[in-house]
Amino acid sequence: MVRNLKGGSGAKGQARKHTSTGSSALIKTRLAVEEGELYAQVTKNMGNGMCHVLCQDDKTRLCFIRGKFRGRSKRDNMISNGKWVLIGLRDYESEKKDKLDNCDLLEVYLDQDKDKLRSRATHINWTKFLENDSANSFTPAEDGVRFTDEREDDYNTLMDSISKAPANSLKLSSASAIKSTSLVVEKEEADVDVDIDDI
Protein backbone atom coordinates (compact mmCIF):
# COMPACT_ATOMS: atom_id res chain seq x y z
CA MET A 1 0.00 0.00 0.00
CA VAL A 2 1.24 3.51 -0.76
CA ARG A 3 2.41 5.52 2.23
CA ASN A 4 0.14 8.40 3.27
CA LEU A 5 2.11 11.62 2.83
CA LYS A 6 -0.79 14.08 2.56
CA GLY A 7 -2.83 14.12 5.78
CA GLY A 8 -6.04 16.03 6.40
CA SER A 9 -9.60 15.23 5.44
CA GLY A 10 -9.98 12.33 3.04
CA ALA A 11 -6.27 11.55 3.25
CA LYS A 12 -6.75 7.81 3.22
CA GLY A 13 -8.48 8.00 -0.16
CA GLN A 14 -5.80 10.29 -1.59
CA ALA A 15 -2.89 8.11 -0.55
CA ARG A 16 -3.86 5.31 -2.92
CA LYS A 17 -2.50 4.30 -6.27
CA HIS A 18 -5.51 5.81 -8.07
CA THR A 19 -4.31 9.38 -7.58
CA SER A 20 -2.00 10.88 -10.17
CA THR A 21 1.59 11.08 -8.96
CA GLY A 22 2.93 13.27 -11.75
CA SER A 23 2.44 16.96 -12.24
CA SER A 24 -0.35 18.24 -14.43
CA ALA A 25 2.18 19.60 -16.96
CA LEU A 26 3.25 16.06 -17.87
CA ILE A 27 -0.30 14.88 -18.58
CA LYS A 28 -1.07 15.10 -22.28
CA THR A 29 -4.37 16.53 -23.49
CA ARG A 30 -6.31 13.91 -25.43
CA LEU A 31 -7.60 15.08 -28.80
CA ALA A 32 -10.34 13.66 -31.02
CA VAL A 33 -8.46 11.53 -33.54
CA GLU A 34 -10.91 8.78 -34.43
CA GLU A 35 -14.06 9.05 -36.52
CA GLY A 36 -16.68 8.69 -33.77
CA GLU A 37 -15.13 11.15 -31.31
CA LEU A 38 -16.62 14.62 -30.87
CA TYR A 39 -16.03 17.58 -28.59
CA ALA A 40 -19.01 18.54 -26.47
CA GLN A 41 -20.07 20.73 -23.58
CA VAL A 42 -22.21 19.59 -20.65
CA THR A 43 -25.53 21.46 -20.56
CA LYS A 44 -27.45 19.54 -17.92
CA ASN A 45 -26.56 16.98 -15.27
CA MET A 46 -29.24 14.31 -15.14
CA GLY A 47 -27.90 12.20 -12.28
CA ASN A 48 -27.52 8.42 -12.22
CA GLY A 49 -24.40 8.65 -14.41
CA MET A 50 -26.00 10.58 -17.27
CA CYS A 51 -25.90 14.14 -18.60
CA HIS A 52 -27.00 16.14 -21.64
CA VAL A 53 -24.21 17.44 -23.84
CA LEU A 54 -24.19 19.93 -26.70
CA CYS A 55 -21.87 18.56 -29.37
CA GLN A 56 -19.76 20.41 -31.93
CA ASP A 57 -22.33 19.53 -34.62
CA ASP A 58 -25.04 21.46 -32.64
CA LYS A 59 -26.90 18.30 -31.59
CA THR A 60 -27.85 17.54 -28.01
CA ARG A 61 -27.05 13.99 -26.94
CA LEU A 62 -27.48 11.88 -23.83
CA CYS A 63 -24.03 11.11 -22.46
CA PHE A 64 -23.37 8.12 -20.21
CA ILE A 65 -20.62 8.68 -17.66
CA ARG A 66 -18.47 5.56 -17.55
CA GLY A 67 -17.23 3.99 -14.34
CA LYS A 68 -13.74 5.38 -14.96
CA PHE A 69 -15.05 8.88 -14.19
CA ARG A 70 -17.21 7.94 -11.21
CA GLY A 71 -16.55 7.00 -7.62
CA ARG A 72 -12.95 7.27 -6.47
CA SER A 73 -11.78 8.76 -9.78
CA LYS A 74 -14.39 11.53 -9.65
CA ARG A 75 -12.03 13.94 -7.88
CA ASP A 76 -10.24 15.19 -11.00
CA ASN A 77 -13.14 14.47 -13.37
CA MET A 78 -15.94 16.47 -11.75
CA ILE A 79 -18.64 17.01 -14.36
CA SER A 80 -20.67 20.20 -14.05
CA ASN A 81 -22.57 22.48 -16.40
CA GLY A 82 -20.29 24.17 -18.93
CA LYS A 83 -17.54 21.54 -18.67
CA TRP A 84 -15.86 20.58 -21.97
CA VAL A 85 -15.73 16.85 -22.66
CA LEU A 86 -14.77 14.40 -25.38
CA ILE A 87 -17.52 11.94 -26.26
CA GLY A 88 -17.68 8.79 -28.34
CA LEU A 89 -20.70 8.19 -30.55
CA ARG A 90 -22.50 4.88 -30.47
CA ASP A 91 -22.55 3.97 -34.15
CA TYR A 92 -23.87 0.50 -33.43
CA GLU A 93 -27.18 1.85 -32.05
CA SER A 94 -30.07 2.83 -34.28
CA GLU A 95 -31.50 6.35 -34.01
CA LYS A 96 -34.92 6.85 -32.47
CA LYS A 97 -37.13 9.78 -33.40
CA ASP A 98 -38.44 10.64 -29.93
CA LYS A 99 -35.21 10.10 -27.98
CA LEU A 100 -31.80 11.70 -27.89
CA ASP A 101 -28.82 9.87 -29.37
CA ASN A 102 -26.64 8.07 -26.83
CA CYS A 103 -22.91 8.64 -26.43
CA ASP A 104 -20.15 7.73 -23.97
CA LEU A 105 -17.83 10.01 -22.03
CA LEU A 106 -14.20 9.59 -23.05
CA GLU A 107 -12.37 12.57 -21.51
CA VAL A 108 -13.09 15.51 -19.19
CA TYR A 109 -11.08 18.67 -19.91
CA LEU A 110 -9.85 21.02 -17.21
CA ASP A 111 -10.02 24.79 -17.60
CA GLN A 112 -6.33 25.01 -18.53
CA ASP A 113 -6.89 22.40 -21.26
CA LYS A 114 -9.37 24.64 -23.09
CA ASP A 115 -6.62 26.89 -24.47
CA LYS A 116 -4.66 23.86 -25.67
CA LEU A 117 -7.74 22.49 -27.43
CA ARG A 118 -8.47 25.76 -29.21
CA SER A 119 -4.88 26.09 -30.42
CA ARG A 120 -4.49 22.46 -31.57
CA ALA A 121 -7.94 21.70 -33.02
CA THR A 122 -8.35 24.71 -35.29
CA HIS A 123 -10.89 23.06 -37.61
CA ILE A 124 -13.55 23.20 -34.86
CA ASN A 125 -15.80 26.22 -34.33
CA TRP A 126 -15.41 26.93 -30.60
CA THR A 127 -17.65 30.03 -30.49
CA LYS A 128 -20.72 28.09 -29.30
CA PHE A 129 -18.78 26.60 -26.39
CA LEU A 130 -17.24 29.96 -25.46
CA GLU A 131 -20.68 31.63 -25.43
CA ASN A 132 -22.00 28.93 -23.11
CA ASP A 133 -18.94 29.34 -20.87
CA SER A 134 -19.71 33.02 -20.38
CA ALA A 135 -23.38 32.21 -19.78
CA ASN A 136 -22.49 29.64 -17.10
CA SER A 137 -20.05 31.89 -15.28
CA PHE A 138 -21.65 33.94 -12.52
CA THR A 139 -21.99 37.57 -13.59
CA PRO A 140 -24.68 39.53 -11.78
CA ALA A 141 -26.94 41.18 -14.34
CA GLU A 142 -27.91 44.83 -14.07
CA ASP A 143 -31.67 44.81 -13.81
CA GLY A 144 -32.11 48.56 -13.18
CA VAL A 145 -33.39 48.14 -9.62
CA ARG A 146 -31.60 50.10 -6.92
CA PHE A 147 -32.53 50.03 -3.25
CA THR A 148 -32.13 53.24 -1.23
CA ASP A 149 -33.52 54.79 1.93
CA GLU A 150 -34.75 58.33 2.69
CA ARG A 151 -31.42 59.55 4.05
CA GLU A 152 -29.58 58.44 0.93
CA ASP A 153 -32.21 60.07 -1.30
CA ASP A 154 -31.92 63.34 0.66
CA TYR A 155 -28.15 63.21 0.42
CA ASN A 156 -28.26 62.57 -3.35
CA THR A 157 -30.69 65.46 -3.97
CA LEU A 158 -28.56 67.79 -1.83
CA MET A 159 -25.39 66.81 -3.69
CA ASP A 160 -27.13 67.27 -7.05
CA SER A 161 -28.35 70.74 -6.07
CA ILE A 162 -24.86 71.72 -4.88
CA SER A 163 -23.22 70.49 -8.06
CA LYS A 164 -25.78 72.29 -10.27
CA ALA A 165 -25.68 75.59 -8.34
CA PRO A 166 -23.30 78.30 -9.60
CA ALA A 167 -20.12 78.60 -7.63
CA ASN A 168 -20.17 81.60 -5.24
CA SER A 169 -16.87 83.35 -4.78
CA LEU A 170 -15.87 85.41 -1.76
CA LYS A 171 -13.85 88.53 -2.50
CA LEU A 172 -11.61 90.04 0.16
CA SER A 173 -10.40 93.55 -0.11
CA SER A 174 -6.95 92.95 1.26
CA ALA A 175 -4.81 90.53 3.18
CA SER A 176 -4.53 92.93 6.15
CA ALA A 177 -8.27 92.51 6.89
CA ILE A 178 -7.76 88.78 7.32
CA LYS A 179 -4.89 89.31 9.75
CA SER A 180 -6.85 91.80 11.84
CA THR A 181 -9.84 89.47 12.26
CA SER A 182 -7.63 86.59 13.32
CA LEU A 183 -5.91 88.79 15.90
CA VAL A 184 -9.26 89.82 17.38
CA VAL A 185 -10.29 86.20 17.79
CA GLU A 186 -7.04 85.35 19.56
CA LYS A 187 -7.47 88.25 22.02
CA GLU A 188 -11.03 87.19 22.87
CA GLU A 189 -9.94 83.61 23.57
CA ALA A 190 -7.12 84.81 25.83
CA ASP A 191 -9.56 86.91 27.98
CA VAL A 192 -11.65 83.91 29.00
CA ASP A 193 -10.82 82.83 32.56
CA VAL A 194 -11.27 79.23 33.57
CA ASP A 195 -12.18 78.45 37.16
CA ILE A 196 -10.91 75.07 38.32
CA ASP A 197 -13.76 74.68 40.81
CA ASP A 198 -16.32 74.84 37.95
CA ILE A 199 -14.82 71.80 36.34
From TrEMBL:
Sample GO molecular function, one term: RNA binding
SMART domains: eIF1a
Region Disordered, residue ranges: 1-23
Domain S1-like: 27-110
InterPro entries noted in UniProt: NA-bd_OB-fold, RNA-binding_domain_S1_IF1, TIF_eIF-1A
Matching PANTHER family: EIF-1A
Protein name: S1-like domain-containing protein
